[in-house]
Design goal:
Length: 377
């Protein structure tokens, strides 16, 4: 243990992951370079077919990033200036940013304290008090499914488009079915730190609707439906063939990596629960049949002090997210104030992500838990 204490335990170790698959990745990348077809094409189409099958979607459409996926989804849904879209204030900025960038209005609803996900009952209240809500964007935060049956029902009841933000949740399941296959559109990110990360940026949209799929494919290439023929005003957001090639290699390993993350989470739960510390461990509900742990997030009142202590002992952590979206300066014109969403605000002050990546060793987890225990002595 003393030897480990002299080392660092990073929050994420992409180099250790790369070593396992280096030869396969180099072969795949070389194939693309030799082929000299870098934008869309067969490599991207093959990845789209493979990831569609993995996510349980009929169609998958690659794009340049997870942020662009959200933007394209809102464009395909016809969401524009003045339209209201309900989402969570406790998530990465891109969710609400995509809404505002298109001129629509983010309407925030608070989250559930046990799942960190958008609360369906609070979402319904927001729909009732904001007439004509056009869309709902639940986020599968940290790799755990939101309550999709409830959100699909709300979408039907209020005639609202349901867009799943599954940027952190590729492979997660709701009642045994992959997320991204429930709403009108699912949005995924392949940012390098994600469980399925590219060697650069990348994103994806999924849908069960053929017309939506065709619309999204056009929107990602400036709304083009034929050479120099444009039915819509779209954007330039294409998944590179090089990234698709890398993702095809990594997709073959994804389930084993996600299983390892889940095993690490179970070890954390046992070791931390045994110490009876004043922290709250992440919970799962019965419908969250597969949590893929993009992050393992604990809660504690002395979060900042604990984070500083762990850093001093070489342990990487991260705070997701210290300022909820309704309190961000750029959204001040929406009129929200501190206290409007107490659960989100409490989690923003207490949440701390610990290393959970698949390359983490049991000795490292024991060292982290031991160090947390010493902090509270």
């Amino acid at each position: 243990m003393s030897i480990l204490a002299e080392k660092t335990v990073p929050l994420l170790d992409l180099k250790a992951q790369h070593v396992q698959i280096r030869d396969e990745v180099l072969s795949a990348v070389t194939r693309v370079i030799d082929d000299q077809k870098f934008i869309l094409g067969e490599e991207v189409e093959s990845f789209e077919a493979e990831i569609a099958q993995y996510t349980g979607a009929r169609y998958a459409i690659g794009c340049a990033s997870g942020s662009d996926a959200l933007t394209l989804a809102l464009m395909a849904a016809g969401i524009g200036p003045g339209d209201r879209v309900v989402t969570t204030p406790y998530t990465f900025f891109a969710t609400a940013g995509a809404i505002s960038r298109g001129g629509a209005i983010p309407v925030f609803a608070d989250i559930e304290p046990d799942t960190f996900n958008l609360d369906p009952s609070k979402t319904e209240s927001a729909c009732k008090s904001n007439g004509g809500v056009r869309a709902i964007i639940p986020v599968h935060l940290f790799g755990a499914a939101a309550d999709m049956a409830a959100f699909v029902e709300l979408g039907k009841r209020y005639n609202a488009f349901v867009i799943e933000d599954a940027a952190q949740a590729v492979g997660a399941e709701y009642n045994g079915r992959p997320v991204g296959s429930f709403g009108h559109i699912g949005c995924f990110s392949f940012f390098p730190s994600k469980n399925l990360g590219a060697y650069g940026d990348g994103g994806l949209l999924t849908t069960q609707d053929a017309a939506l799929a065709a619309h999204l494919k056009a929107l990602r290439i400036h709304g083009r439906t034929g050479k120099y023929i444009h039915d819509w005003i779209g954007i330039n957001s294409r998944l590179d063939a090089l990234q698709a090639a890398v993702l095809r290699v990594k997709l073959r390993y994804l389930d084993s990596w996600s299983d390892r993350r889940s095993e690490n989470a179970d070890i954390y739960r046992k070791l931390l629960a045994d110490r009876q510390l004043p922290i709250t461990l992440p919970n799962t509900l019965p419908y969250q049949t597969r949590h893929i742990y993009n992050q393992f997030v604990i809660r504690c009142e002395s979060r900042d002090e604990l984070q500083a202590y762990l850093k001093k002992h070489g342990i990487g952590t991260e705070v997701y997210y210290p300022v909820p979206l309704h309190l961000q300066k750029c959204f001040s014109d929406l009129g929200y104030k501190a206290g409007d969403f107490p659960v989100s605000e409490k989690l923003a002050a207490e949440a701390l992500a610990l290393p959970v990546h698949p390359e983490l060793s049991v000795d490292q987890i024991e060292y982290i838990c031991s160090t947390i225990g010493k902090f509270y002595q």
